[in-house]
Specification:
It is a single chain. The protein is α/β, with parallel strands linked by helices. It has two domains: 12-135 and 291-303, Aspartate/ornithine carbamoyltransferase (Rossmann fold, 3-Layer(aba) Sandwich); 137-288, Rossmann fold (3-Layer(aba) Sandwich). The chain is 37% helix and 13% strand. It contains eleven helices and nine strands. A five-stranded parallel β-sheet has the order 7-6-5-8-9, with helices on one face. A four-stranded parallel β-sheet has the order 2-1-3-4, with helices on both faces. The radius of gyration is 19 Å and the shape is globular.
């Protein structure tokens, strides 16, 4: 099954609805297996390299856990003590690591396109764990998986992505996957944090947050990414919260069945209030748990000799 290139998962924009649903259904089957205490060992004897050039907690640990649950092993490169710090080129680093015989590589990098470069350089499956402002495929998949698990489908559903869209690779992966599966996708945030031309991806920009919230089935709140901003995109944090923060007052006008998502980490009291993040509509910890299951499905599809074709 092709889920990006012939062997790798690099971006959700390259997947059709059949491929997306095959991964999601595989994740559903894996979750059921673990609920019934059945533990597939489809990565037994295989070793995965986690190559993270950016800090990560949830994604890195999630992939490590996914590999272990499937019976494989993982190795994480400590960039603080690696040859990258000594001036070694990315190409040489990748080729030297490839010579060690890893069965697959998970890559995160601050520059867009690096996982694609790695994929073109090596002959083993490569999984994009986030590249610059481009995409974060496994996060996009786990978000959609969580939505389908909670409401049965995303087809015809209204999904609002709220916050720092400009710097968010999660937003882009969400938009590609949701539109492919037939959802109605809306985005909201300060105009300076809405990418020019986002309408060409199929998303609708919401000018009035208060009027939009009552119509939404899902609201995916994004973190303000201070570490990726070198300019002031809004005057003050207080003004951002007042205009675009998901507060309890705003949520009171939402559907009683609305689900609130957040890829984490959360800036409480800024993009989302604690009463909302910890409230009955939130599925944030479900996302974290589902992240392991979805990454197991990805790894099994790409690497398992006995997994689904």
């Amino acid at each position: 099954m092709k889920i990006s290139s012939s062997k790798s998962l690099l971006a959700l924009r390259f997947l059709n609805s059949e491929q997306l649903l095959r991964l999601i259904n595989s994740a559903l089957e894996l979750k059921k297996s673990f609920t019934e205490n059945q533990h597939p060992r489809s990565l037994s004897g295989q070793t995965i390299l986690n190559l993270f050039f950016e800090p990560s907690t949830r994604t890195r640990v999630s992939f490590e856990t996914a590999v272990k649950r499937l019976g494989g092993s993982s190795v994480a490169l400590n960039l603080e003590s690696s040859s990258v710090k000594k001036g070694e080129t990315l190409f040489d680093t990748i080729k030297n690591l490839d010579a060690m015989g890893f069965d697959g590589i998970v890559v995160r990098h601050r520059h867009a396109g690096v996982p694609h470069f790695v994929d073109n350089t090596l002959g083993v499956p490569v999984i994009n764990a986030g590249d610059g402002f481009n995409e974060h495929p496994s996060q996009g998949l786990l978000d959609v998986f969580t939505m389908i698990e909670k409401q049965g489908t995303v087809t015809g559903k209204n999904v609002l992505i709220l916050g720092d869209i400009l710097h968010s690779r999660v937003a882009r992966s969400n938009i590609w996957a949701l539109k492919t599966l037939g959802a109605n996708v809306f985005v909201a945030g300060p105009p300076t944090l809405i990418p020019a031309g986002i309408e060409h991806m199929g998303a609708i920009v919401v000018p009035d947050l208060a009027k939009a919230i009552p119509h939404m089935d899902f609201i995916n709140v994004l973190r303000i990414q201070y570490e990726r901003q070198d300019l002031g995109y809004f005057p003050t944090v207080r003004e951002y919260r007042d205009r675009f923060g998901l507060t309890l007052d705003r949520l009171q006008h939402a559907k009683p069945t609305v689900n609130i998502l957040h890829p984490g980490p959360i800036n409480r009291g800024i993009e989302i209030d604690s009463d909302v993040a910890d409230g009955p509509h939130n599925v944030i910890l479900d996302q974290v748990a589902n992240g392991v299951i979805v990454r197991m499905a990805i790894l099994q599809q790409l690497l398992s000799k006995g997994g689904p074709a």
